[in-house]
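Question:
When you can, review this sequence-structure pair and walk me through the tokens.
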Amino acid sequence: MDKLSRQIEYTLRMRPLLKKNALFSDETEMFRSPMEPEPGDMLTIRFRTARNNADSICLCHGKKRLPMHIDECLDDFDYYSIHLETPGEPFDYYFEIRLGKTVCYYCRTGVTRQIPEKNLFRVIPGFSTPDWAKGAVFYQIFVDRFRNGDTSNDVLSHEYSYIHQHTKRIDNWYLPPEAMDVRNFYGGDLQGVIDKLDYLQDLGVEAIYFNPIFVSASNHKYDTQDYDYVDPHLGKILDQEGEILEPDDEVNLHATRYISRVTDKANLEASNDLFIHLVQGAHERGMKVILDGVFNHCGSFNKWMDREQIYEGQPGYAPGAFVSKNSPYVSYFDFKNKNSWPYNATYDGWWGHNTLPKLNYEESPELQEEILRIARKWVSPPFSVDGWRLDVAADLGHSVEFNHQFWKRFRKAVKEANPEALILAEHYGDAASWLGGDEWDSVMNYDAFMEPVSWFLTGMEKHSDSYREDMLGNANSFRDTMVYNMASFPQQSLLTAMNELDNHDHSRFLTRTNHRVGRVQTLGSQAAEEGTDKAVLREAVIMQMTWPGAPTLYYGDEAGVVGFTDPDNRRTYPWGIADKELIAFYRNAIRVHKEHEVFRSGSVKILFLDYNVLIYGRFNKEEQAVIAVNNRANHYHLVAPVWTAGIPRSEENVQLHIILATNEEGFLTDAGSVSVSAGILDMVLPPESAAILLRSR
């Protein structure tokens, strides 16, 4: 070796190496305190490096480079901090790291060589989400399919006509839904929920999310008929007068039994009273309740429209906009032909559906005030619900500008009435423009949970409409998708995001494990339960209970309910024949989530990836957890670095306790412990398994 080569080798050997995998910061309390600052608060922002592994760290804000200083050395890391007074406006920042001649930057998506222009950390002064919702365990109930607690309020066969056919009462509770199911009723009601509140409490549920419960002609009730009242078919029916339709009659003006049931104020008030009783019972058990608000559109049966003439001539009701041009509600809708009254059918329907009249906010200040009144009403006493889930929230209005304007007013109205109320929207795609602190609190987490988890563990699209071999077990795609989509969330929104495996709009996760592409219309009901794999479902639940966000069960997931996308995903809860072992697993997974704060509010970091293998950490100052998932059909010998999740390399034989483990056969709640040496976890993972390993200081 010549002299020059020796000099180059020496120089390379002596050049300091930056341990980029040790670099870390996020917006949790460990790295930003307070996490939700008010203007004027003293704010501490922290950044982590490996011990003695940086010459300088700067917080960069615009053109400013603000030096940070070491304030703590803990285990293998140095923690740099800076103290700032929180300004009155949002501000963005990232970090600059220097070691020798090495310069890199750190933003929400991690380390980058270039100065980041997007995915910056952001402080939003004054934006806070309800503490009760951060990491809360939600349970979604589609009421008609949960439990029939009062048969006297059941929708009757031939009670009325909906979309040109009569309603049908399904007498066999266990019968799978038909392909066209919208007018079929199984009889589930609020009394059935009240009867099972103890079951939900025992399961560990902290909040109930109800699909719509207001008066509506469909079983799904996303076509609201009266926003002021709970549907008596879910509540109480005191007045049973009137007649059902004759078999060949589709004129709802003749459906006098239905008209009596849903317009009589005694029935409506009794149903609201029952709901008040339900909320009180939930609150007594430490559970919250949120309602589904369908404010983009209503139903053609709605009293404001009254296309079916349900309310025409009924005492106490003004004429509907369909009925009369003098209706006080004409401005609520966009009528294309202004000369078609009476019985004007030229209104705008959402996506062209005349059963779903689009609400015309821009042209009706009165409508805006009415919806804000309704929003305040249900979060205020005596109802005292704990928030709203907003259906197709990005669609409301006719422009993006108005949409944002209205949701700002909505937030102000709701939060003034109930400061602890949650405002959570249904949204697909980047919701960042609504999560600026003055509109929504958070969203149903499709992009940064449901979809990536489904692709990784099953290779299935969330409707079971496609299967992709290249996505099954693709851990790199999972990581990249999660990192990218999580970067659009403020931390307070991420921790309250609804992390679902499935819901009323998508196929059941357990059905996705059979890799069958299709829907009930083409494959039939039986295909949804053939070849399913509960071991893969258990892996998914472990991830659901340990990933940042609010884990949300769709009723019956814990009991082994299957189904293709809607309507098949709306099968009834299998009372009396539920999978008790699966329920026990869910109960223990929820318990672990609730017992350890690290799963509610700790930082997350992906530690190791391989085909069908994923290892990630959750950590705060008090606890460090490692979650290991092996989705392969064979054993996997795992040798993975876990020290970057805060598990020290300097201590010999650090013990990680396996507090919950799953495999092909079932689960264990105490599976012993594993030693970690020099920050490396060495263990064998069984086929189709997941494990939660925990170290407490």
Summary: Residues 265-284 form the longest helix (20 residues).
